[in-house]
User: What shape does this take?
Amino acid sequence: MSFDRSIKIAPSILSADFANFGQEIRAIEDQGADWVHVDVMDGHFVPNLTFGPPAVKAFRPHVKTFMDVHLMIAPVDPYIEAYAEAGADMITAHVEAGPHIHRTLQAIKAQGVKAGVALNPGTPVEAIEHVMDLADMVLVMTVNPGFGGQKFIHSGVEKTRRVREMIGDREIHIQIDGGVTPETAPLVAEAGADVLVAGSAVFKGGSVDNPEVYGANMKAIRDSISG
Ligand SMILES: O=C(CO)[C@H](O)[C@H](O)COP(=O)(O)O
Ligand SMILES: [Fe+2]
Assistant: This one.
């Protein structure tokens, strides 16, 4: 299959109803989500705790599209196999989470899943320059990781442009995560991003009983870009 450079929306289930993940995943996919973004936090690398491998395994049968697992954990290497076995299609690790990002990306690829490399807002793009050949995606964080609903950090736009230049003609996605809304989405899309994670902007005002709101929220993001 040829590389898909079109804009993809990846709702973060961090903003879903935690008592209802199966239905929430089905609702966002029925309403047009392209990927499902799963935020794994360890209470150490980031000041919040979320999903271990058994939770991710429980999400798997509900995901029909693409399960994108964002690991905000340190150390990361000891857990790669468990998240791959739980059914991740892509595993993204932070360059700040350990001293050996090259080894980490090799370990992800060895599991037969796609590999993403994430940059915190304060990390320069040069930190990933020498691992581009191992990456299927670069994640540019536009909030400090740990929580949904934070304000977009605007230096991420210029950073996205620099990552785009660094990628050249390689087949590598650029994902933006944090504070994506109809106001900020066109800025990062114009700078070269193709995967937009959105938690609060997709789930706000909706529910599994009122899933059309999710569809309208995703449409507002897409329309802001095509407009
Ligand atoms: O990785 C994350 C936080 O660390 C989340 O994916 C992100 O914050 C999404 O939430 P929102 O769209 O509400 O900012
Ligand atoms: Fe995330």
Q: What stands out?
A: The CA atoms of residues 206 and 213 lie 5 Å apart. The pocket of ribulose-5-phosphate (ligand 1) is lined by residues 12, 14-15, 37, 39, 70, 72, 143, 145-150, 177-180, 197-201 (CB under 6 Å). The beta strands are 8-11, 36-41, 67-72, 90-94, 114-119, 137-141, 173-177, 195-198.
